[in-house]
Amino acid sequence: MSHRRLLALALAVALAALAAWAMIPGSALAGTAQNQRCFACHAQSGLSTVEANGALRSVTVNTDYWSRSVHSQLDCTSCHVGFVPGKHSTTVTQGWWKQAALTSCSNCHAKEFAMYSGSFHGNLVMNERATNAPTCADCHGSHAIINPTSAEFRASIPSICGRCHAERSFTYSDTYHGQATELGGTMAAVCTDCHGNHRILPPSNPDSLVSSRNIVSTCRKCHPKANSLFATYLVHVDRGNPRSSFIIWFNDLAHAALIGVLFAFGGSHCLLYFYRGRREGLYGRRTH
Fold first, then answer.
1. I need a surface site. Which of 114, 127, 191, 201 has the fewest CB within 10 A?
2. Which pLDDT band, with edges at 50, 70 and 90, does 244 fall under?
3. Looking at 94, 118, 146, which one is the last position of a domain?
4. Distances from the Cα of 1 to the Cαs of 5, 9, 16, 32, 190, in angstroms?
């Protein structure tokens, strides 16, 4: 084989290896060939914000976050369908948020999108046109999407759900599950373990994972010996609110009162003992 053929073969192999490496998520060249023209504008800081789905959103893309995303090997137009580099017309940008944060996800994640469509959240977004209900991007992010099976994503679930369900997040943090998770535990249940992920339904729906029909089997995923009595444990209870659970509120109040009485009695006893000792010279220097 001639030197010219060997050189051509070596060059072809090198180019193939470089192209394969460029498609690895997180590599320095991942997506560069497809997206460098988009980043020429959207990687700049201080760009103006645009209104989408009832909120102001930045059009600046953090390329450091994007390069570590599980979608970094994709072209920008995989989600932003119809866009081309350059000034975007209102015809193209109309409805871009719903397209990028919802519809485009179904092109690759049809199974998950079908479950979401039949969920409580999906019904609010697609049927009732609610602007405050979560889309795919609200839970998974947009340009900084991390692997949903990773420990990092699992640890972030309570805070993600807490954006809309602050009161529920507060009461969850008061439970063993919540405290173990906040301390770095990876085995304790988070929101999606009990309520599901893409097909979340209200407890009143018989198909919900936390309905009276399914709650025991849901608990048994982590607690094999769980029974109907075990499943009556009240998770989302505000101990300081009698309307949340009067029994728990009263027990906490009685416990606090009992502790107060015991400390008051013990403190008074110590003070009187000290006073009596002082009067009788028990603490004097000449006292043996």
1. 127
2. confident
3. 146
4. 6, 11, 21, 35, 63
180 CB contacts (<8 Å, ≥6 apart)?
187, 188
33 and 139 belong to one structural domain: yes
Report pLDDT digits (tens) over 1-39.
566 666 556 555 555 554 444 444 434 444 556 688 888
The number of distinct structural domains making up the chain is 2
Range(s) of the domain holding residue 259: 237-288
31 domain-assigned: yes
66 in any annotated domain: yes
Residues 6+ apart with CB under 8 A from 191: 157, 158, 161, 172
User: Is 273 within the bounds of a domain?
Assistant: yes
Predicted model pTM: 0.72
Provide CB contacts within 8 A for 60, sequence distance 6+: 42, 43, 44, 45, 46, 47
> Looking at 124-274, which runs of residues are DSSP E strands?
none
Q: How far apart are CA 16 and CA 12, in angstroms?
A: 6
